[in-house]
Each structure stands twice: as structure tokens, then as C-alpha cells.
Description:
With 171 residues, this protein is mainly alpha-helical. It contains seven helices and two strands. Strands 1-2 form a two-stranded antiparallel ribbon. The radius of gyration is 19 Å and the shape is elongated. 20% of the residues are buried.
Amino acid sequence: MAITLNSTAAALLGLLHDGPMTGGELVAAAKERMEPYWSVTRSQVYRELPTLAEAGLVRPGKLGPRAAQPYAVTAAGKRAFRAWLAQPPGADHARNPLVLRIGFGVHHQPGAVADLVAEARARHQELLAAGRSRVNRLKKEGGNPFLLSTAEFGVAYERALLRWLDSVPTD
């Protein structure tokens, strides 16, 4: 029976290729590895792990402190992940709540769009600095070139978003 993975489940299987992790560790690993182009929430992780276990794609380990349970990818999980990788990615789905809110800018109270832009600028300047730091670290480590490439995408995304914020009318 072929198992169809959603992108979140596939991302978790991919992360588990690095070794067993608890749900909390998976959330942290996803944040480190995939932001800003992909996000995984704690609730998504804890919803997917039992489903993946039922399907035999991950194996739960022994409960640790504070009921933390590590999961390991199984051979079937590795096969399902490889099958997911071989599929076409489909259309991109940009879901940016900031862009959505600004798209309804004519309905905001006076000054609200300027506040949104100012808050977003500060946040994305921090994310850009963190992304640059990550790129520099990955370059020094000389490891996985695909991680470096995706980290560089994150930097390019933050630069583009900051340039776009410059174009948003704020009055």
C-alpha cells in the first residue's frame, strides 16, 4: 500500500534522518533548518507523530523526562520519504499574514499600516541578521551544500521582503 505524505509529515521524516528526536526537538530542528521558507508548529508535530507511528513510518522510543518520547524513522519511513522526494512539488503556496493584512490596507485605522510595516521591518531585519549568521556558519563548517543553499534562500527572502516593505504606502 502506497502512503501519501503531506509536506509536514515528509518534513518530519526528513528531519528524523538525522537521528531520533522528541516532538520538541523536531520543532526546534525545523525552525533551525527550514525557516523562513517552511514552518512547522508544535501542534502539527504532535498531531503527525502518532499518525506516522500508526503507519509504521516512525517508531516511538522509551519515554524520557517529562514524558518526552523520541521517535526514529523506520525503513518504511525512509522509503516513503524517498517516494515523496521523487514527486513533483506542485504549486508554491505563499501564506504570509503580513501581506494579507497589508492587502486590506484601505480598511485599517489611520497609522495602522505604518505600525505594521515598522514592526515587520524590525522583525525581518533580525531574521536577516540571523540568516546571514547561519549562512556564514554553514560556509565555515563546509558541510551540506543543500542546507547552505536553503539558508541562502532565507537570506534572499528576507532581503526581498525588506525591499517590498519600502514600497508599501503607509499613509
